[in-house]
Write a structure and sequence with these properties.
The complex is a heterodimer of chains A (164) and B (279). Chain A has 164 residues and is mostly helical. Chain A has 10 helices and no strands. Helices cover 76% and strands 0% of the residues of chain A. In chain A, helix 2 packs across helix 4 and helix 8 packs across helix 10. The longest helix of chain A is centred in the C-terminal third of the chain and has 25 residues. With 279 residues, chain B is α+β, with helices and mostly antiparallel strands. In chain B, the strands form 5 sheets. In chain B, strands 1, 2, 3, 4 and 5 form a 5-stranded antiparallel β-sheet that branches. A 4-stranded antiparallel β-sheet of chain B has the order 6-7-8-9, with no helix packed on it. In chain B, strand 6 and strand 7 form a beta hairpin. The chains are: A mainly alpha (164), B alpha+beta (279). At the A-B interface, helix 1, helix 2, helix 7, helix 8 and helix 10 of A face helix 1 and helix 2 of B.
Chain lengths: 164, 279
């Protein structure tokens, strides 16, 4: 008799998982890819973790973070870099490029561990200690990663403001 | 705006992350389909990779170890008398080369008493070597920088690693289990194919003749004065000996002796009990 518990788990947890995946990956398409890679791993371990939905969800969230931070996946999925200038919309069509667009582009350039800290802190509202436990880092390291991420974003925004 | 205030920036980051997080969710059925396809593909690729690995490793071993069944080059010759050995009336081995045209050594094998020969080149062996069969039926090739052993009547061969700095010139074994290297560089003993070489203490500084014994020990003879030294298996030290059961020439699993120039030959399995040969 086929086991439908994994399918049921995916259907139930998809909104929460997709939310984290989209925030980590920065877009719906890449978020779906991240979700897919994560669920492939979870499916392999499903017999071991399907004790209850809470355990499975926590395991999947952790697996998603590990997958996102995985160097191997980074290399495998790395796209072709496109120079910012070439990718920039024409000024006549998008004359009012706002700070959000700059911020979104700047966030896409952040190292993955820095972005993960931002997602867990600003989207999930987790305290530094919990983020540190999830990422296997020290709280001081989490604060350092956030500081460096915000500094980078601030630098991009300031630079863009001086060019406008 | 020369600098973005920290609180404002954090609010902007929070807002942007929330906006990205609330992007449309993928269709569950579509995601599940992608997960299934990916898992099937991963399983297939893993199986294929394992099969390729097995084939590559198998092919490497297959080609690295000389096997019987190939065709020998024309004009080969026997390097020296000790390069020929018959394990029984039908099965024989020979080391042949085509020097000076091609000084690659081939292992020639016959299974019909020497009427036809076939063989394979031995990788790394370009100089004349020796071949003989030990009492346990194993066949041994030594020459160049190699010692090879076959324990399946010549079908497959494997290399025996030598101690650093040693050459296989003085390699010998009686029983196929206790292996000896006796040369100007030193004396070594190894027990079994996978054991480590153990250095033995030379009893004298003179050049010595070595002869492995049926019990696994080693007998050394000083040709200058006829003195004999013996180290039993398990001992690294040689002691002077006058045991009469030691030192007879082994012929396969038997020892052979002659008590006088015209006396009949006698054979023995243990060096103690001797039986006259009836011819």
């Amino acid at each position: 008799m086929p086991d439908h518990s994994f399918d049921d788990f995916v259907r139930t947890s998809l909104p929460a998982l997709s939310r984290q995946a989209n925030a980590l990956a920065g877009s719906a398409d890449r978020g779906a890819d991240l979700l897919q890679d994560t669920l492939v791993k979870v499916a392999k371990a499903w017999r071991r973790i399907r004790t209850d939905e809470g355990t499975a969800l926590a395991y999947t969230r952790k697996a998603m973070l590990n997958t996102y931070l995985s160097t191997w996946r980074t290399l495998r999925r790395r796209g072709q870099p496109v120079p910012y200038e070439d990718d920039r919309p024409a000024p006549d069509a998008y004359h009012t490029i706002d700070s959000r667009d700059v911020l979104r582009r700047a966030m896409a350039t952040l190292p993955r561990d820095q972005r993960a800290v931002l997602v867990l802190g600003y989207l999930e509202d987790l305290p530094d200690e919990q983020i540190a436990a999830i990422l296997d880092r020290r709280p001081a390291t989490v604060r350092s990663l956030r500081f460096r991420a915000l500094s980078t974003l601030r630098k991009h925004l300031t630079l863009e403001a001086t060019h406008v | 705006m020369s600098e973005v205030v920290s609180d404002v920036l954090e609010d902007m980051v929070r807002t942007e992350l929330t906006r990205q997080a609330t992007a449309p969710h993928p269709d569950p059925d579509r995601i599940l389909h992608r997960v299934r396809v990916t898992r099937r593909r991963t399983t297939t690729m893993t199986s294929a990779a394992v099969m390729v690995l097995v084939i590559v490793v198998g092919a490497t071993v297959w080609t690295a170890i000389p096997r019987t069944g190939g065709t020998l080059p024309e004009e080969v010759r026997l390097g020296q008398p000790t390069a020929l050995w018959f394990a029984d009336p039908d099965h024989g081995y020979a080391l042949v080369d085509a020097c000076p045209t091609a000084c690659q050594v081939w292992l020639a094998v016959t299974t019909d008493g020497g009427r036809s020969w076939h063989g394979r080149a031995i990788p790394g062996l370009t100089a004349a070597g020796h071949i003989h069969t030990a009492a346990d039926g194993s066949a041994w090739i030594s020459g160049g920088s190699l010692v090879l052993v076959s324990r399946d009547r010549g079908r497959t061969w494997r290399e025996i690693p030598l101690p650093p700095g040693a050459t296989p010139d003085g390699f010998d074994t009686y029983d196929g289990h206790h292996l000896y290297l006796v040369s100007g560089q030193g004396l070594w003993r190894k027990t079994g194919d996978d054991g480590d070489w153990q250095r033995l203490d030379a009893p004298t500084g003179n050049p010595l003749q070595a002869r492995p014994q049926p019990d696994g020990g080693l007998l050394l003879t000083d040709p200058a004065n006829g003195a004999r030294f013996y180290a039993p298996p398990g001992s690294t030290a040689f002691q002077p000996t006058d045991r009469p059961d030691l030192g007879h020439k082994p012929n396969g699993a038997r020892q052979l002796r002659r008590t006088g120039p015209n006396a009949p030959y006698e054979h023995s399995t243990d060096g103690h009990t001797w039986t006259p040969l009836p011819f």
